[in-house]
Design a protein that fits this description.
The protein is α/β, with parallel strands linked by helices. The chain has one domain. Strand 5 and strand 6 form a beta hairpin. Keywords: Signal.
């Protein structure tokens, strides 16, 4: 009976931790500077900023946002990042990519650049800038190997914070029409009762989903 109660309490504790780990807080801020709208033959390209020396926006996050914008009501045609960068070589490589809309304006005077923009049907360029940071690590886990077998015991936790900004450039007017920021935070846990069981807060996935939804509405002019 004691063994059953112990296992039951352990199961309840694990279920509680799962519910905590799956809970994240996500905030979205939108700053609009111009009117937007997009036609069915037009597309959006989403690019990650990678000029910083201490971090670069992960291509997986860029792909996640783009893929989600192609789904559901108001779906938008997205030009894959790598396909666009390769076709525009070397103009959108990290060292040469335009940092301001006036840089894009100068770039569009190049016939090869403007022709390829037209071929892709690009109406908006979205620059994603940000990263996910892990902070506030606490706890410890120890593992032992003995005659009766191996096991790990202990508890660890940490906080993940995904912070991303999306700047939207209108290729038609060569202006910055707005910025959308997302910040997702969540607590992750690693309880170890013989076997470590990671309970990870999906902050980056939540940030991707919320940012993609907001971007889709923004570009559509909702």
């Amino acid at each position: 009976m004691k063994h059953f109660l112990g296992r039951n309490r352990l199961g309840i504790a694990l279920l509680l931790l799962v519910s905590l780990a799956s809970c994240t807080t996500t905030t979205i801020d939108e700053f609009r500077q111009g009117e937007t709208g997009i036609e069915s033959h037009e597309s959006v390209v989403i690019l990650g900023r990678r000029q910083a020396s201490d971090y670069e926006t992960r291509s997986e996050f860029v792909s996640c946002v783009g893929e989600r914008m192609t789904r559901g009501e108001g779906a938008i045609s997205i030009v894959p990042e790598q396909e666009f960068v390769d076709a525009m070589f070397p103009w959108f490589e990290p060292r040469t990519a335009p940092l301001r809309t006036r840089d894009l304006e100068r770039l569009m005077t190049e016939a090869s650049v403007s022709d390829r923009m037209t071929e892709f049907g690009v109406r908006y360029i979205v620059w994603l800038d940000g990263f996910t940071e892990t902070t506030d690590r606490s706890g410890s886990i120890s593992c032992t190997i003995g005659p009766g077998g191996a096991g790990c015991f202990g508890f660890g936790s940490w906080e993940d914070d995904a912070n991303f900004d999306a700047r939207v450039w209108d290729v038609g007017s060569l202006t910055n029409v707005g910025t959308i920021s997302t910040d997702a935070t969540g607590q992750s846990y690693l309880p170890a009762f013989v076997i470590p069981i990671p309970l990870i807060a999906r902050v980056e996935a939540n940030a991707c989903s919320r940012l993609a939804t907001q971007l889709k509405e923004f570009v559509n002019g909702s």
